[in-house]
Design a protein that fits this description.
Helix content is about 25%, strand content about 30%. It is of the alpha+beta class and about 325 residues long. The protein folds into three domains: about 10-80, RNA-binding S4 domain (Structural Genomics Hypothetical 15.5 Kd Protein In mrcA-pckA Intergenic Region, Chain A), CATH 3.10.290.10; about 90-165, Pseudouridine synthase (2-Layer Sandwich), CATH 3.30.2350.10; about 175-315, 2-Layer Sandwich (Pseudouridine synthase).
Length: about 325
């Protein structure tokens, strides 16, 4: 074996016994976590061919693991783990100052704009890598949901698998109430309170991910409430009832009122308005979260609008 960073480790057949922390996880998600570096296509091919077995039987990707299950993992080429990314000291301190809630099973962070939630796609690190470096005593830290890199505001991070599963259950229904603030171009009609338009992901040639309204897309619903109207822009509260990529941004564009500062989905007129107002980032902020965890009172958390965005509103009011 060489010292090359590209070296591979050949693993023989492994038998893993599922413990309480992994109960209820989908098999494919569990494999993606424990087989880091193995291509996703290789894992799903192995699932289709029956190479991964639970209690000696074939199972599908959506099988939910139970305590005591014995999982067979076939021989695989798995890259050795690389060195942990070096997180700049600025971000470590910044994230620590932005933890708005913490208990034994959960962290809630007011994420700044400009920081991705995780590394990948050319990024060495994101919020979750910052937290893991900052909190080495935490054996388990996983994102419950996502925020776009340029969106600021509240994001949930589970410290226990059971909390992750419970919050995912609530997110699949309507148990988590998420509210965002957005400044959109034009005067949003007060009577237009709901956008229902299916969304489809599309990867363009540059590798950039875009989303569009398409009849073959996934059902998507966002509620909008007008909070304040200005001459040529409107401050709205957006409540996503589904959790699609770029959902609020694309639904606002579809309604004819793109979010100001949105380089992906603004038209030329909205871009000119944003420049005139001095908006240098996406004007979208995850303001509040409300949900209920077992044996706890309902949590209702808020994060004030970032000063950069609040100052823009104050200038517009004058």
């Amino acid at each position: 074996m060489t010292d090359s960073t590209a070296r591979q480790v050949q693993s023989g057949v492994r038998q893993l016994q599922i413990d309480a922390d992994s109960v209820g996880q989908r098999l494919d998600n569990y494999l993606l976590k424990v087989l880091k570096g193995v291509p996703k296509t290789r894992i799903y091919r192995g699932l289709r061919k029956g190479e991964f077995r639970v209690n000696k039987g074939r199972v599908k990707a959506d099988y939910r693991l139970a305590e005591g299950d014995v999982l067979r993992i076939p021989p695989l080429h798995q890259p050795e783990p690389g060195a942990a990314p070096v997180i700049p000291g600025f971000w470590v301190g910044e994230i620590q100052s932005r933890i708005v809630y913490e208990d034994a099973g959960l962290l809630v962070v007011n994420k700044p704009s400009g920081l991705a939630v995780h590394g990948g796609s050319g990024l060495n690190f994101g919020l979750i890598e910052c937290l893991r470096q900052q909190r080495p005593q935490d054996r388990y830290l996983e994102l419950v949901h996502r925020l776009d890199r340029d969106t600021s505001g509240l994001i949930l991070v589970a410290r226990k698998p059971a909390i992750l599963r419970e919050l995912h259950r609530q997110l699949r229904g309507d148990g988590v109430d998420k509210r965002y603030l957005a400044l959109v171009a034009g005067r949003w009609p007060r009577e237009r309170r709901m956008i229902e338009a299916p969304l489809q992901k599309n990867i363009v040639q540059s590798g950039e991910r875009m989303v569009k309204v398409a009849k073959e897309g996934k059902a998507s619903v966002t509620g909008f409430t007008v909070l304040e109207q200005f001459g040529d822009a409107t401050l709205v509260e957006a409540r996503p009832h589904t959790g699609r990529t770029h959902q609020i941004r694309v639904h606002a564009q579809f309604a004819g009122h793109p979010i100001l500062g949105d380089d992906k989905y603004m038209d030329d007129a909205a871009a000119a308005l944003a420049r005139g107002l001095g908006i240098r980032r996406l004007f979208l902020h995850a303001r509040s979260l409300a949900f209920k965890l077992p044996d706890q009172p309902r949590l209702e958390l808020e994060a004030a609008l970032e000063p950069e965005l609040e100052n823009i509103l104050e200038r517009m009011r004058k």
